């Protein structure tokens, strides 16, 4: 049992020295995080390192081993030939649909432009017709007035005047 205790004691001493060396390295990471925080004004790296130290010290006090977090590398997934063909087909369908939409929009736009031009031409024609009819009305009224001045039956003509 004594041999086991010596082995355990050596393991504890080795772990302590390893922890001391790791703490020195961690102090460098804490220093780096502090410098980053001062340069950028972002306290997140400093808080992150502080939380790491707090967790590690609590685990050490409870006699637990150092917590090691390993982040697995992201797997890069290769597409199968079928998946790539499916993606390519969908992209081509999308291109064709976009082309059809643009062509339809051009046709609609040109039809509306032609309709606007026709409406403006019709509006001008009607405006000119209104102007001509107004001038003709004024001439007819003038002729009627002149006729009423010389007409012997003027009283009968005045009855029909609007």
Automatic annotation (TrEMBL):
Keywords: Coiled coil, DNA-binding, Transcription, Transcription regulation
Coiled-coil parts of chain: 116-143
Keyword check for Transferase: no
GO MF annotations in UniProt: DNA-binding transcription factor activity, RNA polymerase II-specific; RNA polymerase II cis-regulatory region sequence-specific DNA binding
InterPro entries named among the record's database cross-references: AP-1, bZIP, bZIP_sf
Keyword Coiled coil on entry: yes
UniProt protein name: BZIP domain-containing protein
Organism the protein comes from: Mytilus coruscus (Sea mussel)
